[in-house]
Amino acid sequence: MEFQHFTTTSDDEGRRLDRVIKRMLPSSSLSALYRLIRKGLIRVDAARCNPDTVVHVGNDITIAVIDETLSDLRRTASDFQDPTMPQTGDDRSPCPFPVLFENSDLLFINKPSGVPVHGDGGLDRLIGQAESASRSLSFRSGPLHRLDKETSGVIAFSRSLHGAQWFSEGMQTHAFNKLYLGIVEGRLEEPERWEDRDEYGRPMITRILPISDGSGSLRNISLILYRIETGRKHQIRIQSSLRGYPLLGDARYGSKKGGPYYLHAGCLKFPEDRLEGLPPEITAPLPERFISLLRKDFPENVLALVQSKAVYCSENEELQ
């Protein structure tokens, strides 16, 4: 019987065999994969194994070339690059959007408004795989969190399994400070802590700090700095609307003005025990339409405050 051989890389390290194989043979059900493993048609270093066998760097995974594996094996073999072959380039994929920071573990871009994260025309399809991911049997690089289609700003992509695991854990434990700038209808005067429940009963917690009232033709508007403590779908949009301060342009949640709303994921702050080489914070410049409104309808110093990044400084204790 013919077997196809594959060598695991650092981005497969510590994963269960069944999860690695599922990536390689996506057309097969888990029950079919378990059957192949049980029959010895999938092996690790030529030895019989179990679905929960943990793989390590340099393991030789062999898969029998039979009818139910043939088509997937052809695809995997064409995608997989031998990790022992010399590498070229700096392990960075071309990106069609402004790159805020990139290393071998993580990529941060400034997402434009109007571009979805997933699906047709989404970032997950427009931003290529990391070179290391193309050498891995099971790891695929991609977006690590979500922003709504019309929300601009900082968004993170994995470049290695280590980076993906670290970032995902930080998001789950709320170890990062996620700061947004929004322009809302109405005027807020004092810092507030908003706590609500989403449609599933889960808490939505957001701290807000008013930065400035409008002073131009749109006087009844405010620039707000948000820090979200939870990350529910449409959280800022919903909570702003519930309190009578919908985001300007967010007709779905009560804005009187049509068009794209004004919400920008401006800054992502990391704890001291962050990944090596990662700066303390990643900030994203405002899109031009946001800048234009600040220049036209807010006091002169407001745009300078935002562009200097002082608006995100730790002295804003109300958000800490």
TrEMBL record:
<dbReference type="InterPro" id="IPR050188">
    <property type="entry name" value="RluA_PseudoU_synthase"/>
</dbReference>
<dbReference type="InterPro" id="IPR036986">
    <property type="entry name" value="S4_RNA-bd_sf"/>
</dbReference>
<dbReference type="Pfam" id="PF00849">
    <property type="entry name" value="PseudoU_synth_2"/>
</dbReference>
<dbReference type="GO" id="GO:0003723">
    <property type="term" value="F:RNA binding"/>
</dbReference>
<dbReference type="InterPro" id="IPR020103">
    <property type="entry name" value="PsdUridine_synth_cat_dom_sf"/>
</dbReference>
<keyword id="KW-0694">RNA-binding</keyword>
<dbReference type="InterPro" id="IPR002942">
    <property type="entry name" value="S4_RNA-bd"/>
</dbReference>
<dbReference type="Pfam" id="PF01479">
    <property type="entry name" value="S4"/>
</dbReference>
<dbReference type="GO" id="GO:0000455">
    <property type="term" value="P:enzyme-directed rRNA pseudouridine synthesis"/>
</dbReference>
<feature type="domain" description="RNA-binding S4">
    <location>
        <begin position="15"/>
        <end position="74"/>
    </location>
</feature>
<dbReference type="GO" id="GO:0120159">
    <property type="term" value="F:rRNA pseudouridine synthase activity"/>
</dbReference>
<dbReference type="InterPro" id="IPR006145">
    <property type="entry name" value="PsdUridine_synth_RsuA/RluA"/>
</dbReference>
<keyword id="KW-0413">Isomerase</keyword>
<comment type="similarity">
    <text>Belongs to the pseudouridine synthase RluA family.</text>
</comment>
<protein>
    <submittedName>
        <fullName>RluA family pseudouridine synthase</fullName>
    </submittedName>
</protein>
